[in-house]
Amino acid sequence: MTAGLVRGDGVFPPAAYERDDESPDDRFYTVPRKVVHIDDGAIGALGRLYAEMLPARGRLLDLMSSWRSHVPSGHAATIVGLGLNAEEMADNPQLASHVVHDLNRDPRLPFDDASFDGAMCAVSIQYVLHPAHAFREVRRVLRTAAPFVVSFSNRCFPTKAVAVWLGTTDVQHVALVRTYFEATGGWTDIRAEDRSPGGGDPLYAVWARAAPLPS
Ligand SMILES: C[S@@+](CC[C@H](N)C(=O)[O-])C[C@H]1O[C@@H](n2cnc3c(N)ncnc32)[C@H](O)[C@@H]1O
After folding, report:
1. Which of 43, 64, 106, 136 is the most exposed place for a label (fewest CB within 10 A)?
2. Is 4 a member of any domain?
3. For position 105, which CATH number holds?
């Protein structure tokens, strides 16, 4: 763990970021899980949102990545994955490269400033212990005006989800993720939408664009 890190980053109460399973995250993710965490309807809805929001070319960061990135086929962007299981990411046909990195141990991203044209984090934000650090880091690695799309449904691995997520509703999750963008600063055009296709898994998304850096 990076020295000086406090859960919730001083922005949110540390107790809200306790979890049932406090063992190191890489232990939980040692075994590859080549499954999808939302149904086909929700995956389709996420792909449509990505088609709207993500630039068709350039370099995208798939934060908390696994064996599928849900970016519609035909998207010509180069996608870099960051997650905990190398085997899952090696089997992701959309990733050009990947890095194993534990965001909860060290929220600093191993990428240069302004080196991505967009970023996404699908169905995983509930596992993040240092959301303000993580969102500041995503802002740092994005170019100005690049989007960051955070999506989630109503399921999770409960032992690894933070207490504030388990204790709140879907609507409150949307408000929480919006607060992550607002509390960290550096974002503009913050939007939150229920993109649920109906009849199956819900899909919620909160996204924003990297604001111009102060000169
Ligand atoms: C529910 S899966 C979602 C995977 C993928 N985004 C998707 O849409 O299918 C959660 C992913 O988050 C990653 N993850 C969990 N904790 C992490 C951490 N502390 N640091 C980096 N990645 C983490 C794991 O590697 C895992 O693949």
Report:
1. 106
2. no
3. 3.40.50.150
